[in-house]
Please model this.
Amino acid sequence: MKTCNLAGRLSGISRATFTRCIAVSAISALACPAPAQVPLVPPSSGLINPSAIAFSPSTGKVYAVDTAHNAVTIYNHASGKTLSVPVGSAPVSIPVNTASGKAYVANGGDGTVSVLNPATDAVVATIRIGSHPYSIEANSVTGKVYATHTYGGQTSVIDGATNAVAEIKTGSNDLIAINDATNTIYLLGYEGGTVLALDGASQTFRKRESGMHAWGMALNQQTGTLYVAKVGDANVASLNDSSPSAAYLPAGAIPCSIAVNSLTNTLYVANYGDASVSAIDAGSGHSLATVRVGQHPKAVAFDPKSNLVFSANTSDNTVTVIDARTYAVLATLPAGKSPYALAVVPGANTLYVANEASNSSTAVDLSAIAQPKP
Model:
């Protein structure tokens, strides 16, 4: 079985390509020193995507890829019912157009995108976009859908009204974030940490440098500031239009996922290397708190309605629940095998988790947790 180590990842292959080639076993864990000199395995061990699970505010449903069964699991949060819907081969990521309610599934195995009807949950279109799609996001204002390709140098653009496909030569990119208000699509490449800011109207782009070894990305929709987690540098790059260069905010060892509290302009950063979540004042760049969580957190999410922060602890098979006001740990809950992505239903008593080891998902009961004040 082919394996890669962290040094190999730092040599300049793409994030998506790297996640395809890592296979970590219990008896042969790969380890090497991180920037903080902590022996660590890399933050991925299989083809996973932080957008493998998503909540639709227009339907109240949660969509999770089920790669092993070529399906999507749909949780109807209001009714409590769960449905499995067959899609294309090896689905890897899924966003929702919050205006139309349509869900789009990137099928890495057969180069297609499955479109799910929000009312019937049926697949209403299968769109061929080319080999190995990886990340996919929808602009809910324009209706356009953007998809990267693991081995390709292009970004596919789907017209949500006609399902017509166009391609833009953008080079190899991994993650996508979209500012709906400005129609700006941000494409992140792990290899050099370059962010392409694509103008959705003109389809031209400009480059923004965040520095090498970028692994996670989040956008504050209120301020328009983009944040990039730097796994090799133990910091977060802050990019906004008012400054030509990035500012850097200190985080923990191997930061790999970011959540944004736009109400307070606070960042929550999952630090895979030292089992912590950093709370950072994004305006001043000052650290607010470092919260100890479970081993190897791969994802972090924030619920603005309940004022809770969640950390998916992959090696512990748990989720840590944090009070965003006091930074106290309220609970550590079982979350299925190797949790790696999270979907929050605001204010709900259930958290939805994508599980890497079983290619499945888990609904985590939060009802016993004392809710903090917003």
About this structure: The mean pLDDT is 87.
